[in-house]
Specification:
heterodimer; A: mainly beta; seven-stranded mixed beta sheet; four-stranded antiparallel beta sheet; 11 strands; B: mainly beta; six-stranded mixed beta sheet; three-stranded antiparallel beta sheet
Amino acid sequence: EVQLVESGGDLVQPGGSLRLSCAASGFTFTNDAMSWVRRAPGKGLEWVSGIWGRGDATFYADSVKGRFTVSSDNSKNMVFLQMNSLRAEDTAMYYCAKGQGRRSFNELDSWGQGTLVIVSS
Amino acid sequence: QSVLTQPPSVSAAPGQRVTISCSGSSSDIGNNFVSWYQHLPGTAPRLLIYENTKRPSGIPDRFSGSKSGTSATLDITGLQTGDEADYFCASWESSLSAVLFGGGTKLTVL
C-alpha cells in the first residue's frame, strides 16, 4: 500500500523559510515522479513543484519559481520542498503526491494528508 | 499563472447526472492529457480520471471523462450525497512546463 506522509508545516513570518518533507513507502520510489500541490483557504488546488523519479529534473509553478526548491533523497525515499522568501499568499495546506510514471506530474494517483503552512506576522 | 476554466458550482438531485466542463487552450488541454480530481478540504485529493477517459482501480464507473479539442468534461451519473465535494480538472501546460489545475467546481447534491 502506497503511503505518503508530509511533515514540516508551521507558522512562519513573511520573508521566512520552511522545509517540508514527504516520506514515501509502498512503491519503487525512483519509478515515479513526485509533486507538491497546495490548497489555500477558499482557493482551489495549485500545483507547486515536481521532481522526476531519480531526481534528474525539477519543475516549478511561476508563483514559486526562484523561491522554492524541490529535491529528493532516493536512499531514504523522501521528497523535500525548501520554501524561502515566504509570503502570505503561500499560506495553504501542502500535499505530497505521486505520479503514475517516472516523468508524470499530471496523473497523481496517491496523496498524503497534507501539512499546513501559515505565513503571518 | 492562468488556470483552466470550470464552472464554480453545479447541483443536482440524488440519482441524477451532472456534467462539469473544463476549458483550456492548445498549450494545455489541446495537446496534453486531462485528469480529474475530487477533493474535500482537510482530506487527501483523489484521482478520478486520467488520460482523458481512464479510471484508476476503485473508481466507480459512475464517473467518466471525455475530451474534445481544448475542452474536457467530467460526467457523474447516479449522484449520491457522498459525491458532494470540489472537482478539479488538470493538464500539463507545455509552454510553462507545469501542471495547471482548473479553478474547481463545487458539487452540491440537493
